[in-house]
Design a protein that fits this description.
Layout lengths: L1 E17 L2 E9 L8 E7 L14 E14 L5 E14 H15 L13
Antiparallel strand pairs: 1-2, 1-4, 2-3, 4-5
Length: 119
């Protein structure tokens, strides 16, 4: 599982690719000063609705998987495609709150005698 936090730059409409497949694409951008990244993500099937309550300009965290596939075109050329398939979306502030709660509750600052460190 991979995660990425960014601001919604583009929120596409749901597309019906075939009778059995639908997808919805959206673009996140981070605000890195030197080299901002603009990343295309996709939602598929029932997950297309995960972004319905988010708006352009909202900061969100996406949980996704990197997927790749091979395709042979009619001329016999082989092409390769990658996709970032999102399976969970959270508001960025919600992620930060959950992380700080989890760190506070599970934090171990002092090693215990059970720690078997070689140094």
């Amino acid at each position: 599982m991979l995660t990425y936090t960014g601001i919604i730059k583009v929120k596409g409409n749901e597309q019906k690719v075939s009778d059995r497949f639908r997808k919805r694409e959206f673009v996140l951008t981070d605000n890195a000063a030197s080299y901002p990244q603009t990343i295309l993500f996709q939602l598929t099937q029932d997950r297309c609705s995960l972004i319905k309550n988010a708006n352009v300009g909202d900061e969100i965290t996406v949980h996704f998987q990197l997927k790749g596939r091979e395709w042979k075109n009619p001329q016999g050329e082989i092409k390769f495609f990658n996709s970032l398939d999102v399976f969970k979306i959270e508001r960025a502030t919600q992620v930060a709150e959950n992380a700080s709660e989890q760190n506070f509750n599970n934090e171990t600052l002092v090693p215990t005698p059970d720690d078997d460190l070689p140094f």
